[in-house]
Amino acid sequence: MNPNIAQKLARPAILNLKPYSSAREEFTGNEGIFLDANESPFNKPWNRYPDPFQQRLRQRIAEMKGVEKENIILGNGSDETIDMLFRTFCEPGEDKVLSVSPTYGMYKVSAGINGVDYETVLLNDDFSLPVEQLLDKADENTKLLFLCSPNNPTGNRFNDDDMRVLIKQFPGLVVVDEAYVDFSSGGSWVQALKEYPNLVVLQTLSKAWGLAAIRLGMAFASPEIISLLMKVKPPYNVNTLTQEKALEALLDPDVLTGRVDEIIHERDILMKSLSVVSVVKKVFPSDANFFLVQVDNPDEVYDYLLKRGIIVRNRSREPLCAGCLRISVGTPEQNQYLIEVLMAYPDGIQGNKAAEHWKPIADWLVTPPRRAVRTRKTKETDITVEIDLDGNAKADINTGLGFYDHMLEQIARHSGCDLTVQVKGDLHVDEHHTLEDTAIALGEAFAEALGNKMGIERYGFALPMDDCAAMVLLDFGGRPELVWDAKFKREKVGELPTEMFEHIFKSFAIGAKCNLYIKAKGKNEHHKIEAIFKALARAIRMAIKRETGADFLPSTKGLL
Questions:
Q1: Fewer Cβ within 10 Å of end Cβ, the chain: N or C?
Q2: Comparing C-alpha atoms, which of 154, 219, 165, 150 is closest to residue 196?
Q3: What band does 218 get if pLDDT is binned at 50, 70 and 90?
Q4: CATH of 371-544 given 1.10.10.60, 3.40.30.10, 3.40.50.2300, 3.30.230.40
Q5: Which of these, 469, 482, 442, 475, lies nearest to 531 by C-alpha position?
Q6: What's the whole-model pTM score?
Q7: Which fold has domain 256-365?
Q8: What confidence tens digit (pLDDT) does each residue in 2-42 have?
């Protein structure tokens, strides 16, 4: 692939263009008496023009995406970055662009605004890419190929091998619109920028980040492509409020993980639930935060939902989407209401058939994911704990203390939970704060993930190990207490002071609001503390087990 493809494809007028130079480009400092930009001296700080190149925001995005700042340009939503591509590379009345059908409609609108021919090739019946037809359709005047993956409105992510063939063989720029990539099980094409100089990747904060109102789109490409787009963009295209709000959100990426996980879980519930509603003939697979459902009478069903306050998109007139409504994933309450409304639709599931199909779905609906993310920031420590009680025993632990990492990994492995613990502590002073605060945060994560504790076993377990016998009795009843009966003769095991062992479990009991009775005997001090952690993990495994759809508390008081 020609590394100078950007220069080859760009409009001559853009290559020769000297871009507008704003006052904020000529002086980039923050201090001084600003008399250079004809701004008002009043109403600070909103009297000043925004940073025209969004330097801080682009740097933060670069760090998150693993690219350089020079690989990024920002726009007023992805629609502006799409328009920039047309104006930079497509000569009106001469060049053309190519895409698939059905797909995001803004590509065609931007082509019309810019006087550029817009050609499409119909997707295959399974919504996969018609690779050969797309390549056959392209010629020397086809400057751009737009591929929305996951695609809107079909919801599917295109096959990576098909995409790779198109990127390698298409004569122009391949623009991969990843507006919905955060909901997909596959990775981003941003990581392939160095390999393919003709690749442009679009992303947005509108979907997974929940920031559609601030209008921030991102385009990732080679520095050569980005430098040409920078010539075309308006000088102050991203306002200060948008930049500040985006920076604020991007400083806490854990929020994104939690939201995406919940949306994916709710998407799966919706898709499974609607698949047994008789008015729904087919539910199409999805890698996005929406999916298509096919019905016999889409206009009638659309109006029926609208009258009950539910707005979906009628996509039935799109190619390959006959009878299809597009449904975005909402909150659990909104999704539940949608299910109930469609269940009540005329000629829907009734009588014994309704009970037969609805019972397993109802069980699933009242068994929400048991996940939590807890952060604990003090002057001594900065800790993040992520836990999934119904995970696959995966562990990612980094406390700065190798032996402590090893012990916490035992909790994940033997409890069956997924556990991530990331700690920055003042180990140059002492281990105390790292050990204590991590145990507190871990306990709090368990307490949050357990939620209302409906249907859990509540109690558990004892465990022998080599020459040691460790017994841990656990009660997630809500009253923190520790009874400790374990003595250690050595000052340290690994780099951990043995005097801190009791304190670690006390801190965990307080955070988790649980009762712990711990007893251990044995000759080998390493085996003894490891047996205690493993026994705790097995006790947790037993105590957090729950019955699907259970609506009872394991308590005669009716309260935990």
A1: N
A2: 165
A3: very high
A4: 3.30.230.40
A5: 469
A6: 0.65
A7: Aspartate Aminotransferase, domain 1 (3.90.1150)
A8: 668 999 999 999 999 988 888 777 777 777 788 778 888 89
